[in-house]
């Protein structure tokens, strides 16, 4: 039987957020422990019922089981799932079919009463499967997505310290999903800013999972409405949950990679309300 640790996070109103202490901000928006050997660690958020988590099989296979909160016999009975491997080589076995998933490769599994089992190729270098799951109403096929299949956009420049590649992996220009969108943004050496200029999208929530952060470095993740920004300091392999009223942007003390995942009513990646650095500097006025 797999060990499942589930934490539930209720949605926060922006008026309440404004009064939070740093400890309260971290309690509500930081997800610190995603990977634990031989466990499935899940955070069930009430933002579009988006679940983020990690599965790290070490001493044997780890089965994806529905936590009590789902009140379902199968994890995917009413949900779809996106998986990106951020650890050693591994495989995901879906209804008995083994799909190899190497570092930074993604897998989509549509809803249905599937059995899903995670395995590492080598216990000494375990796979780490980062998971995002959202409610789903239609069963789309299982599909592996590697960098060669991704929709890749180069953004920013070294001059503005935000040169980065946005790898759109599980998005509607690559494969059909109900509402889940997932991708991975890689910062070039010397660039530290992600998602700057920043944006909001009130039709979708988002979660950012940071990795490849050197051990002695950290990420400063910015959140909040444009006129009420706050920051959260994050270490490697930690995530921040971004409510639909919040910007989501970060600066690292080095370059790094992060996985973004979204859920909501609109699959249009470009459907954003943009906020420039000068708008932030003027106190968050959202028109120039
Ligand atoms: O670096 C970026 O810019 C991003 O990766 C932006 C995210 O993809 C995003 O916020 C999508 O809404
Ligand atoms: Zn966004």
From TrEMBL:
One Pfam family, short name please? KduI
User: What's the EC number here?
Assistant: 5.3.1.17
Reaction equation(s) it catalyzes: 5-dehydro-4-deoxy-D-glucuronate = 3-deoxy-D-glycero-2,5-hexodiulosonate
| The protein's annotated pathway | Glycan metabolism; pectin degradation; 2-dehydro-3-deoxy-D-gluconate from pectin: step 4/5
Q: Any note on cofactor binding?
A: Binds 1 zinc ion per subunit.
**Top-rank taxon, per record:** Bacteria
Q: Which UniProt keywords apply?
A: Isomerase, Metal-binding, Zinc
Record-level GO BP terms:
D-galacturonate catabolic process; D-glucuronate catabolic process; pectin catabolic process
Where does this protein hold Zn(2+)? Answer: 199, 201, 206, 248
Which cofactors go with this protein? Zn(2+)
Q: Name one GO molecular function term.
A: zinc ion binding
Function, as annotated, reads: Catalyzes the isomerization of 5-dehydro-4-deoxy-D-glucuronate to 3-deoxy-D-glycero-2,5-hexodiulosonate.
As for family, the record states: Belongs to the KduI family.
Q: Which NCBIfam families match?
A: PRK00924.1 (NF002091)
Q: What is this protein called?
A: 4-deoxy-L-threo-5-hexosulose-uronate ketol-isomerase
Organism from which the protein derives: Simiduia agarivorans (strain DSM 21679 / JCM 13881 / BCRC 17597 / SA1)
